[in-house]
Amino acid sequence: MESEFIEICRIEDLKEKVGKQFFVEDLEIAVFKVDGQIYALSNICPHQKIHLIHEGLVEDGKVYCPVHGWQFDLRNGNLANGRRGLDIYEVKVIDGNVYIRANKKQYNW
After folding, report:
1. To the nearest whole percent, how much of the chain has pLDDT over 90?
2. Degrees, nearest 5: CA angle 68-87-24
3. Degrees (nearest 5) of the Cα angle 5, 17, 62?
């Protein structure tokens, strides 16, 4: 089943190159606005499971984990070496409202 988009904020609630933390369903998401584009990634760094990606420095299309400096591409969540890093979430903006499609993790027990 495909997840629906969930409204999280107004676009003016986001500051340029400053992350903001959101909880959507059972997910913790870091949202960034860079040059008018909105990006949504997991807020949990895979290195040591630190929940601070939203506090990371944004530079050259990447967000840097504020704890150990791991860098993730805002477009695809990948690490600088191309390895998979952070989950990303589809974003759309309608009439100034920001929506995220947050697919819940499916467990096959």
Report:
1. 80
2. 105
3. 85
8-34 confidence digits (pLDDT tens) = 999 999 999 999 999 998 899 999 999
Does the pLDDT at position 1 exceed 50?
no
Q: Please name each of the domains of the chain with its CATH number.
A: 5-101 (2.102.10.10)
How far is the CA of 4 from the CAs of 50, 89, 90, 100, in angstroms? 27, 12, 10, 8
Rounded Cα–Cα distance for residues 72 and 51 (Å): 14
Q: Which two tokens stand for residue 9?
A: 């904020």
92-96: average pLDDT: 97
**∠ Cα 56 20 65 (to 5°):** 15
